[in-house]
Structure formats: structure tokens, C-alpha cells
Write a structure and sequence with these properties.
The complex is a heterodimer of chains A (72) and B (181). Helix content of chain A is 64%, strand content 0%. Chain A is built from four helices and no strands. The two termini of chain A are 50 Å apart. Chain B has 181 residues and is mainly α. Chain B has two domains: 92 residues, Orthogonal Bundle (Rna Polymerase Sigma Factor, Chain: A); 82 residues, Orthogonal Bundle (Arc Repressor Mutant, subunit A). Chain B is built from eight helices and no strands. Chain B starts with a helix and ends in a 5-residue tail after the last helix. The chains are: A mainly alpha (72), B mainly alpha (181). Chains A and B meet through helix 1 and helix 2 of A and helix 2, helix 3, helix 5, helix 6 and helix 8 of B.
Chain lengths: 72, 181
């Protein structure tokens, strides 16, 4: 690193306020545990109905496939 | 708790929650410390630490317990931090008038005028995310290149190249703003 780069680095450090405080202030395990205990997200039944309807449409009317792909 | 990190790793891959807790407690500080260096926002760093361990937990079956856990965790943390920086950049451009959020770092040096500081922050915020992350770690945090390379999954020359490009772009951008460091 040349002198110009060093002075840029110094300017950057001073503007940023120096290195970040790396110390974790509290234990994150309770939050982690809460997250692990959350039930997995479930897909609403209505979404299954829509997906099934779309699939049925595509099977019954295959000529609509290009149009659907275009809209996606 | 099972006692040693090796034993915890072995049991963690089999889904043992106590082993996961032991690993979490052992490594949470290290993972947080790495993320906060990259994102420089304690609140975001805590969220990303939790997300890192969440992904680690979900991917436990793929982990080889003979490999170092810390390096694996740091790689996942780095990817998440980069994603976060990209999202933050897309959502809201850096406001040069704002001080660093939630005081992840000390106050800016008062010897650097507010105007110059705003220009430096704005120019730095315009850097591509990967260059900005490398420059933050190398230039502000003074992290050794080898450590950065391992965490980002690139070579030491790759880190040097990113820092070099970041410096070049930053200098050009500052010169356009009338700042000549």
C-alpha cells in the first residue's frame, strides 16, 4: 500500500469511526430456542386449491401452456 | 452438554439439541463478531447470527464433524452478511447525514469535517457490495487478508484484488466530490 492509499485508508477509518465493537452484549440462545420451537410455516389450503386448479387447467388445455409460461 | 467440541459436533450432526446448544454458546460470540465487522450494525448482526445458526441447524446432516466448525459457520455468516448488504443497498441508499446506526463503532473522528465524512460515507456506500465488504474488513477492521479470504471463500489474491479495485473506485468517486485524500 503506497502513501496515497494509506492516507485514504486513514480517512476512511476516521470517517467510519474505527473498528466495530465486536463483543456480543447478551446471550442469543433464548431467541434461537424460540425460533427453533416455532412450528414450520404451513401453506394455506387455498394455495393448494389454486395450484391444483392450475395444474388441472394445464392438463385439460395444453395449448395454454405457452401463455402461462409467458405470463410467468 | 457433552464436554468437548468434537463430541458436540458428532452429536450435533445426529440432531442432538444439547450438542447444538453447546456449539451455539461456544461460537455465537465469534460469529457475531465476524458479522458485525462486515455489516457494522449490532442489531442486524444479532439477527444475522441467529439466521446463521438456523441455517447451520437445518444443514447439520451435511456437516462433516472432522472439519472445523468455526470456518463453516463463518462462511455461512459471510454469505448472509453479503446478502444483507445487497438488500440494504437496494432498499435504501446510504444517507450520508446519518450517523452509523446503533453505534456499532465509535463516533466518527471530529477532526474529519461533517462534509468530508458525508462524502466519504456516500462514496463508500456506492461501491459494489463485494468490494465494500472486502474494503471494510481490510481497511477499517484491519482483518488479515488470509482471514478474509477464508471467510469469503476466495484466494488471498482475490481479496487483494477486491481491495485494490475498491480503493481505485473510492478514490475516483471522492475526487468527483472534490475530496483528495
Amino acid at each position: 500500500m503506497n502513501e496515497r492509499d494509506k492516507s485514504l485508508k486513514e480517512l476512511l477509518k476516521r470517517a467510519a469511526g474505527g473498528p466495530a465493537d465486536r463483543e456480543l452484549k447478551h446471550d442469543l440462545w433464548p431467541e434461537m430456542l424460540r425460533r427453533l420451537e416455532q412450528p414450520p410455516a404451513r401453506v394455506p389450503w387455498w394455495d393448494w386449491v389454486l395450484a391444483a386448479s392450475l395444474l388441472l387447467c394445464l392438463l385439460l388445455f395444453p395449448e395454454t401452456v405457452p401463455a402461462v409460461l409467458y405470463l410467468l | 452438554m457433552t464436554g468437548t467440541v468434537e463430541a458436540d459436533l458428532e452429536q450435533f450432526t445426529r440432531g442432538d439439541m444439547q450438542a447444538f446448544e453447546a456449539l451455539f454458546r461456544e461460537y455465537q460470540g465469534e460469529v457475531y463478531g465476524w458479522i458485525v465487522r462486515m455489516v457494522r450494525d449490532p442489531g442486524a448482526a444479532e439477527d444475522l447470527t441467529l439466521e446463521t445458526f438456523w441455517r447451520i441447524y437445518r444443514a447439520r446432516a451435511r456437516f462433516d464433524p472432522r472439519r472445523p466448525f468455526g470456518a463453516w459457520a463463518r462462511r455461512i455468516a459471510s454469505n448472509l452478511a453479503l446478502e444483507h448488504l445487497s438488500r440494504r443497498r437496494a432498499e435504501k441508499p446510504l444517507d450520508p447525514d446519518l450517523p452509523p446506526r446503533a453505534a456499532a463503532c465509535a463516533a466518527p473522528d471530529p477532526a474529519v469535517g461533517a462534509d468530508v465524512r458525508a462524502k466519504v460515507v456516500a462514496a463508500f456506500g456506492e461501491l459494489p457490495v463485494k468490494l465494500r465488504a472486502a474494503a471494510t474488513l481490510a481497511m477499517i477492521e484491519e482483518t488479515p487478508y488470509a482471514e478474509i479470504a477464508e471467510a469469503l471463500g476466495i484466494s488471498i489474491n482475490g481479496v487483494k484484488s477486491r481491495v485494490f479495485r475498491a480503493v481505485r473506485l473510492l478514490r475516483r468517486s471522492l475526487e468527483k466530490r472534490g475530496v483528495r485524500p
